[in-house]
């Protein structure tokens, strides 16, 4: 195990034979400790396969790769945790750290873990709402709250009524303008039918002349 850039990182190296039966290898860095709940082993396998020869995907290389990676992570993770525990014990022997702080931190993490997975104890949301409503009804501030709510409702109603009036006025003005344009269009495009009989008589006169 080697440390890179001051971090607890180890290199996993996987050796395999490519399609030409040549020795090949891929490498990936793994942070320790490895959190199996938040980090996905399949994602690491996919990243390694992307760096390998494409033919390995069709040779079921991912099966042996995943098994080797899982075993490597388990072994290196255990080594890291063992070394970390030894360092803590050595610091405790030398009185180099606050043991009470470690105890408090451990207790806090333990409580957080218990609260996360334990069944909820206490009133339900329905009970909390019922209690809050009961307090509001019997509160001395209820009358003032109702007055304010009535004032807000009146303001909203007035704004809504004014908006409806403005919309109605705008629609009416638009309709009048459209009617005016249509009437002007009818006047300019409607032919004068009174001229038709005179035109017909003139055509007949010149026809029999």
Record field, number of beta strands: 2
> From the alpha-carbon coordinates, what is the Rg to the nearest angstrom?
43 Å
Distance separating the two termini:
123 Å
H and E order = EEHHHHHH
Q: Order of strands across the biggest sheet?
A: 1-2
Number of domains: 2
Report helical residue fraction. 55-70%
The coarse silhouette is flat
Mean pLDDT value: 78
* Major sheet description: 2 strands, antiparallel
Low-confidence stretches: 1-6
Tell me the strand percentage band: 5-15%
Count of individual helical segments: 6
The structural class is mainly alpha
Description:
With 209 residues, the chain is mainly alpha-helical. It folds into 2 domains: 9-103, no CATH class; 137-191. Helix content is 65%, strand content 9%. The protein contains 6 helices and 2 strands. The protein has helices at residues 41-51, 61-93, 99-117, 125-137, 142-189, 196-207, and strands at 9-17, 23-31. Helix 1 (41-51) crosses helix 2 (61-93). InterPro entries: Fy-3 (IPR019311). Pfam families: Fy-3.
């Amino acid at each position: 195990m080697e440390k890179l850039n001051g971090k607890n990182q180890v290199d996993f190296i996987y050796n395999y034979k490519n399609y030409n039966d040549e020795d090949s290898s891929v490498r990936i860095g793994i942070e320790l400790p490895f959190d199996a709940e938040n980090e996905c082993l399949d994602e690491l396998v996919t990243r390694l396969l992307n760096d390998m020869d494409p033919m390995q995907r069709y040779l079921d290389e991912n099966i042996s790769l995943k098994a080797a990676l899982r075993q490597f992570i388990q072994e290196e993770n255990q080594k890291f945790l063992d070394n970390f525990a030894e360092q803590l014990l050595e610091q405790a022997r030398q009185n180099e750290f606050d043991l009470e702080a470690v105890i408090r931190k451990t207790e806090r993490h333990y409580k957080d873990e218990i609260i996360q997975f334990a069944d909820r104890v206490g009133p339900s949301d329905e009970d909390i709402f019922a209690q809050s409503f009961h307090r509001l009804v019997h509160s001395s501030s209820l009358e003032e709250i109702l007055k304010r709510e009535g004032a807000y409702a009146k303001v909203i109603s007035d704004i809504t009524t004014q908006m409806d009036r403005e919309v109605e006025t705008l629609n009416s003005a638009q309709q009048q303008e459209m009617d005016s344009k249509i009437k002007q269009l009818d006047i300019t495009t409607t032919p004068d039918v009174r001229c038709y009989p005179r035109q017909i008589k003139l055509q007949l006169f010149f026809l029999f002349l």
